[in-house]
## 1
Amino acid sequence: MEYAQDKKEIRTNKILSELDKFVIRFVKILEKHVDYVIISGYISILLGRARATEDVDIYIKKIPFEEFLKLYEDLKKEDYWCLNAEKPSEVFSYLNDGLAVRFSREGMSLPNFEVKFPKREIDKETFEDFISFIHPEVKLKISSFERHIAFKKYYLKSNKDIEDAVHVEELFKGKIDYEKINKLRKIIESIESFEKP
Amino acid sequence: MEERIFMKPGKDNNEDRMNFVKFWAEYVKSHSDEEWSKQQNIIIDSQIINSIEFYKKLAETPEGRENIRVKKLKAVQNH
């Protein structure tokens, strides 16, 4: 696995897992309609972390209902269902309220995709601060390692999240910008004190 | 012959888990993509295959299909 920090690109020839194939299939539909970035735990798994997951978190850029409807219909056509509501207007209103909605393959609930609009400024920045994961079969957009580590270590903080962060830190030792992580940490901590007084 | 890397046992479960995370990251770093991903996929694929098999089996009978319908309904209602 080669990480070119300057190009913000990671190249690999890994053997794709069933989970990777599941993600690729979903993302190929998603990117026809909206800009996206994969965030959180799946990034560590994609990069080799030895654990499974029940969901894959994805930010999509805020889009009007008409465009969302096309995406929703395409997902239905490709055999996905939304675990949160049947009516597309209802699914869209959840997203607009800043909530995450989940999609899975028809007849299944696991694994699923947790899709959301970015709410805070720091979340919106993810679309400008991503890495291209390049594999002979696919190109995926994933959140930058610094953002991934900062959120896992200073916002989510569970043992699993800390381990996810450490995996990436160890893997790319010497290629991670700790100044950037500290800046993000300060923003996260200020958000936290506001959200959890 | 390949030089082996050894993992330091942790004093408790948390430390041991963390040591393994670092040990495995080192393994991923020092081995080919094919080698580490083959091992990682054993863990990941089993979860997906089990999930697919579970729902496939459930959908074989009318009761199972009803069960899936109720599960879906509950998922929507619980949101």
## 2
Amino acid sequence: MSTQAPVAPAPVEGAAPATTTFEPVIIGFTCNWCSYRAADLAGTARTKYPPNVRLIRLMCSGRLDPTFVLKAFSEGADAVLVSGCHPGECHYIEQNYKALRRFQLLQRTIEALGIEPARLQLVWASAAEGVRLANEIARVTEEVRAIGPLNWPAGDIVDLDAVDLSAAWEATGGDADGPPEAPGGVNPDHAAGSLPAAASQPAAATQPAEASR
Amino acid sequence: MTAEHSHLPAENEIRIGVYVCHCGSNIAGVVDVAEVARWAAENLKDQGVVVARDYKFMCSSPGQELVTDDIKNFGLNRIVVAACSPHLHENTFRTATARGGLNPYLCELVSIREQDSWVHTDKAAATVKAKAILAGGVERVRRNEPLSPVRVDINPATLVVGGGIAGISATLELADAGFKVYLVEKDPSIGGHMAQFDKTFPTLDCSACILTPKMVAAGTHPNVELLTWSEVEKVEGYVGNFTVTVRKKARYVNEDLCNGCGVCQEKCPKKVIDEVFEAGLGYRKAIYTPFDQAVPRTPVIDRPNCTYFEKGTCKACEKFCETNAIDFNQEDSIVTLEVGNIIMATGYDLFDARKMTQYGYGRLPNVFTSLEFERLSNSAGPTNGHVVLRDGVTEPKSVAIVHCVGSRDKNHNNYCSAICCMQSLKFAHLIKEHTEATIYDFYIDMRTAGKGYDEFYQRILEEGGIFVRGKPAEITDVARTPEEEGKLILSVEDTLIGQQRRFPVDMVILSSGLEPRADAKELAVRFGISCSFDGWAIEKHPKLDPVATMTEGVFVAGCVSGPKDIPASVAQGAAAAARVLGRIQQKVMSLEPIKATVHAEHCSGCRICNTMCPYNAISFDDALGVSSINAAMCQGCGTCVAACPAGAISGTGFSDEQVLAQIEGLLMVGADGAPLRRSAFPVAHHEAVEEAVRA
């Protein structure tokens, strides 16, 4: 078994990057037939793009359950990128149109929840468009960097059956200036700076929970 | 780096082995792989990681043995390999997992090469991203379930689309091996572009002499069913079991009765300019076969130009036909074919030289395209092989051949069309053979890679062609000097001497590049394959799997996937046939078990999913009031899974649980490597979802 020394120097665990620019975390949903292949192609061609995006492979953009997007935001993603085959080129005939419909609904939904629509972006990329996908990832990263971190009020796992709404209100929305520490510590990027629209309207964050009960 | 927690597994305990590949320096050069393995062993213990290793080449035999041995020694029941794209080695590690005695689908391959080390330069950030990707894989694999591949029978019949040399080559290989082939061709005869050529480079073989025996063989082969003057309208089904709908356009000639005597063509009074086969230089009749050696010999009536269809009288062909084969009442017929595999050999279109207005094609009569010259120099062509100007009589005293027309040009096509340099050299030789003319070749670079190709170039140089390195800016008939009067003048920068020069000539040949078929994108959708922005079909792997596509059972051969010369097209036709034969010999094939299933107990019968499926695989049971999915028809896109408001449809291999868990894993660490803060956003974690589903 290899214990070969790595070529790269080991980074210090948990150390913040030397730069002070905000580094967003972006979840990208890709289609197995086009955009995931485009990502492979970008790799093979050594096309560079920012390391902020983390990709998930689905069989089709039509597989995108809206919950996936909300889940990504809830887990701490600053933005979500949805990508699929160009209109008219879906591997499954027309399912990317369904993804498009969901995307438009989702944008309105997240806006209603206080999340900037620019945090959810749709990019069409064919299997041949590695460079296009890389450029789009770079563009989205820059845009999200400009918007800043998604400062949702911090919280622990929400068990919908056990949640005490009044306690949740105090714990999550009660203090917009200083959200309580999440388990494992608060990401300094997230705690720093002025809070965006979402956190300044804590009611928006908790009301859907109430409504859904 | 290894961390081992060895003890016997408790019942239902998830025990995961994690393997981080160096891929030599491909991954380890950017990602600190030892650190990633160490981190996984320490931080993913709660997720069930009991052993985490890094290794130089996981795909090597010793690398795979690590997996198989660990499964036995540590009682592993899940495997995560962080290495290259699953499109490359997923099968390798699934097989290794199976060798270790586990169900192969309990293995996940996550890409830290194509999606990480190869696209990022910041080593610290790439290492953090690798941890996140790995954690996503670990969270996901916990929810993987043992699956069995779907077994499908392979129908031994094959559909070949396109009767050019690539399609003919594929057809003959398959038919000679003893299997049924349907060859569909949109024109009245098979033969394709090659049938239009006089000579082939570099051997100067007579094109027709080497092609026609193949055409006849395909046309008379007992295993081949030719469907010419036909087009594929619809492709349904999947590998092994395609149902293809073909429209046989009305020929107005009964194929069974026609003996191909050709008297109808002689007697037909209507002459029509042949824009297709003769490239607009010659005539054919309203009832015609495109050329003398056409296969099949059965002619077609060109309905818009036929006097009978126009005016209601004539019927000369019918009168003289001895076998009563003419049938003016014939209509298009729809043929349904059942095949196991499909080979697309739909070829190319020529770049339309009219788009380059500066070259004056279509405006200046003595500017010709390469295809026009092919017909002009062809002894069976409209001038019987006499190279003459558009007036039909004057032999040119000087000819210019312009390379790269529409190719290697940012305004048109960026790519090199691969065949035009050699084609231009062939033209230079043919002009020398047929006339006394002085020949000028205007090239950007000479590209003569291929067996005997550069030798051919040397031969043409010795024959005395004049080669000017430069792309003409303009071709004009506006003379500046008395010598230029009545000539076509090419103005060009001779880049070897760094001077602007003007060349007055009698005739110009534009060596037009190759383009994807005008309907290439529609075809790609119809056959379910991908194509590039230009429209060339995308291969499964450009080097290692050049005739397969990402769609199982659909193969490509010849120029459909990019410009190719004849030898390459023939080789690809045979290669595609070999791939299909492999499938036919297997008789049964294993497919990914990615399918959707409705859990009837949760289905409310809302029927939202019914309209989602593009394959009509979902039907509604009126008696039970629930929807159900036909597994054979389901292609596994998962749209219905995402659409079901009750969560009653599960998608095997990409279940909600798997994807939601992967999201959690991917977001375990932030961009800086520190744990990421979760919000109180009201989306339940998978445990809660599972709990809710159970409750």
